[in-house]
Amino acid sequence: METALYLLPVTLGDTSIEKVLPSYNKEIISGIRYFIVEDVRSARRFLKKVDREIDIDALTFYPLNKHTSPEDISGYLQPLVGGASMGVISEAGCPAVADPGADVVAIAQRKKLKVVPLVGPSSIILSVMASGFNGQSFAFHGYLPIEPGERAKKLKTLEQRVYAENQTQLFIETPYRNHKMIEDILLNCRPQTKLCIAADITCEGEYIQTRTVKDWKGHVPELSKIPCIFLLYK
């Protein structure tokens, strides 16, 4: 195995590894002893799911969150500098894409260390694929403002970009606030604007549906505890 910083995708929910990750990923993971992770407990659980025979206690985990300083991250990469491969694992999906990891990769690139992204599920890419919206130009905005006035303003700004730039707009919300988000979209966007709701992607209860804002009214499913991604287009 080539020495590198491997970006290791994980499942988006409680789905089988075989359904969403290639067997090559398991081969790579089995050769790594140092992991930079968003959450140590969930990372350990994921690794055991990949390989039940893995010796978790023989591995070293470095926590990566909003409190991790650039100096800490640079120190984390010392095993890689010394010739040992390392892996980056986020809570769900692909590290460094709408998830922690970008800062690690940036430092590795500055140090001219090899970075290898592995194939795995990304809710952003999968939702664009299934929406029927423009896949040539799209933008992901993460979480929108919580304050009602600011959120309404942001939604209208994103909708304007849909029509002015022919660009698909994507964003997310905390699951328990999904219905409030949908209410705000239906209240603030044009009746003809299309909204795709992509929920529980790759999981057993996967739900991906595209309708106009007008057609969504009165037909919103129960999504209060399900990870969702929302897409707007014309």
From TrEMBL:
InterPro entries in the record: 4pyrrol_Methylase_sf, 4pyrrole_Mease_sub1, 4pyrrole_Mease_sub2, rRNA_ssu_MeTfrase_I
Keywords linked to the UniProt accession: Methyltransferase, Transferase
GO biological process, alphabetically ordered: methylation
Keyword Protein biosynthesis included in the entry's annotation: no
SUPFAM superfamilies: Tetrapyrrole methylase (SSF53790)
Origin: domain of life: Bacteria
Molecular-function GO term, any one: methyltransferase activity
Presence of keyword Cell membrane: no
Membrane-crossing residue ranges in chain numbering: none
PANTHER family, per database record: RIBOSOMAL RNA SMALL SUBUNIT METHYLTRANSFERASE I (PTHR46111), SAM-DEPENDENT METHYLTRANSFERASE (PTHR46111:SF2)
Protein known as: SAM-dependent methyltransferase
Source organism per UniProt: Bacteroides vicugnae
Organism lineage: Bacteria, Pseudomonadati, Bacteroidota, Bacteroidia, Bacteroidales
